Amino acid sequence: MSETEQKRPRLFVLDTNVLMHDPTALFRFKEHDIFLPMVVLEELDKGKKGMSEVARNVRQTSRFLDELMGNVPQHAISKGIPLNTLQINGGAEALSGHLFLQTKPVSGDLSSTLPGNTPDNTILATALNLQSEHPEKRVILISKDINLRIKAAVVGIRAEDYSNDKVLEDVNLLYSGIDSLPEGFWERHTKALESWQEEGRTFYRVAGPDTQTWYPSQCLYLSGDEGFQAIVREKQENNAIIELVEDYTNPKHAVWGITARNQEQNFALNLLLDPNLDFVSLLGTAGTGKTLLTLAAGLVQTLELNLYREIIMTRVTVPVGEDIGFLPGTEEEKMTPWMGALMDNLEVLTQTEGGEWGRAATEDLLRSRIRIHSLNFMRGRTFLNKYIILDEAQNLTPKQMKTLITRAGPGTKVVCLGNVAQIDTPYLTETTSGLTYGVDRFKGWPHSGHITLQRGERSRLADYASENL
To answer: What is the pLDDT of residues 10-60, one digit of tens each?
Structure first.
């Protein structure tokens, strides 16, 4: 792209799905102008009914548009509505662009290239008309719909995805929560090294350039025969305090009968069992033990240590295949088909030596302390001294993630589990998922921890399928 082309002012045409996804998209283009075709307003009107997240976003978009138009005289609408008349996000962003609404019919016809009078084709026709009317501007169509962007390229319109909601440019840049110490680490830090023991735990104060890139609660390990594993407990400007982790691979330190089978699982149990961490996130592919480890740690802290009153498990009800329709019963009974992972892991955790009677008694005890709730009824609630497990968190939007985590009251721990490679929610990607958002935003907070589990431990069949299918 030439330098002259880059300097041309931009006019962004917004598709309906962008505003359905993020109502504040109206205010995300800074000094550039945006244009809303009339068909977009029609589609927003059709989508405003209901209690879904999309319907709420549509209603919020309508409120923003109403407030913007209320600040402008009727005769000035065609000249553009200044976007800086509303203070969004505390007015921190300087907005100098204008909002243009379609005030006249579109001239031109797409029937020869794109037959059919569909909303998408009408948006394309509007964008083509703007290109011919405003040659001094770069007209760019913004849409979450890949097919619409393909059609736009076919008819000669520049189209882009809405990227303002991306947490990272590449999911491979996501914080993993674990770091390998370089060779010769101890030799370089021996002079400025302090060590002490406190309540049976071993701590080190390390100073040096390597500590600059560490985060609070980050897991550190040293490869080789030494088998050194530690967690960053305190991060200061020029030094850090690290603590040796508890070895949960040893059967003597089993957690509800469960032992860690690899290094990442051992780190995960240390994070889950730390009462000073209020938020823990576990990422990993199928079979890495996310749910089993979380449940085992929750049961120990709820039934043995009495740190929490009960365990609450929830997840987004997004089906992988066809929806099975309405389900009868109470909230917990409706959620039961979605909680197969909970039931499967409870079978592992209730294997006792008391035979069938002992297993049944143990299951009844555990079920009395585990509650299943739907995310649909979380708004407005406050959970006190609860151990909240959010399964399949990759299907949450950042807004839904914020809604859930802000429900936590004093003494509550929130654990988010998921695999960003298995997203079932439309318009969500690995870089825009609420789970990615939570991991990235919490990585610098001292009371949170994160670990990415790499190795599957379900079975050799599951491991082979995960790698080769």
So the answer is: 899 999 999 988 888 888 888 889 999 999 999 999 988 887 778 888 999
Please tell me whether residues 123 and 210 are part of one structural domain.
no
Could you count the other beta carbons within 10 Å of the beta carbon of residue 97? Answer: 23
- Alpha carbon 146 to chain centroid, angstroms: 21
3-state secondary structure of 393: helix
| Count of domains observed in the chain | 2
Q: Which of 305, 315, 316, 296 is nearest to 385 (CA)?
A: 305
For 274, the token pair is 């730390």
* 212 shares a domain with 109: no
**Alpha carbons 91 and 84: distance in angstroms, whole number:** 8
**What is the end-to-end Cα distance of the chain in Å, rounded?**
40
Question: 160, 186, 210: which is the final residue of a domain?
Answer: 160
CATH number at residue 114: 3.40.50.1010
Length of the chain: 469
- 417 within a domain of the structure (yes/no): yes
Helix (H) or strand (E) holding 158: strand 158-160
In whole angstroms, give the CA distance from residue 353 to residue 85: 69
The mean per-residue pLDDT over the stretch 336-342 comes to 57
Same domain? For 109 and 198 the reply is no
Closest CA to 464 of 285, 282, 342, 260: 285
**Residue 253 domain boundaries:** 171-468
Based on the fold, state whether residues 201 and 282 are members of the same structural domain. yes
Residue 69's pLDDT band (cuts 50, 70, 90): confident
Which residues, at least 6 apart from 78, have a Cβ–Cβ distance to it below 8 Å? 103
Beta bridge partners of 281: 416, 450
Residue 100: strand pairing partners = 35
In this predicted model, what pLDDT tens digit does every residue of 45-54 receive, in sequence order? 998 888 777 8
> Helix 290-299 and helix 263-272: axis angle, to 10°?
40
pLDDT attached to residue 105: 79
Indicate which CATH number applies to the domain containing 357: 3.40.50.300
Residue keyed to tokens 């991306």 = 166
| Single residue among 160, 189, 214 that ends a domain in this structure | 160
With 0.85 as the threshold, say if the pTM is over it: no
Helix (H) or strand (E) holding 284: strand 279-284
| Residues 102 and 210 reside in one and the same domain | no
| Band (323; pLDDT cuts 50, 70, 90) | very low
